[in-house]
Amino acid sequence: GSFIDEHCRSHNMDSNTLYSMSFIQYPADIKSHQIFIQKSFDTHIISSSLNVLNYGILEEKDGNMFSAADQKLELSLFNIKSESFIYGVSAGYVTSQIDNYSSSLLTYNIGFKKHLINKRLAFGFSIEDYNYVIEDFSNIQESYLSLKKVITEFQPRFLKAHIMFDYIYKNSNHYEYILGIKKYINNFFNIY
What we know:
mainly beta, 3% helix
């Protein structure tokens, strides 16, 4: 999926506001936390999220210990005037720390998603992770590639799931195809 699926989430239509929190513990004491808030208006959705990824305490080959973490604050705006055509933008501020070194950047996303055939077929396009570096870790400039995504989703009549196919392009040497299934269990659970 695109940043639209990540930042313009479906929710209970009886409420105009969606709150979400996640706390994930990975192996090696790596932790991920997210707070997400989405507010619906007549023709627009505004969402914001705060993501923290803590890599824990790491050890260098010489035995020195250090910590590393990333934080991202993002604000998104989507036009939902038409149920069959959604488009939006987002901007975020990202900071990263490795021991005593830090970096920061601004990141931007833009995209759209078009639904056809009673919302059973969808096509989308997005440009994601377009970055402006504010501060590098060192005097060596980092190179960050933006992504171009083409997404398709199809929900067959006989299957209560979406079949998804994405094409992600960074440059002529780095691109990928992704095939997946999103199964709806009920209004609260999905399996990917």
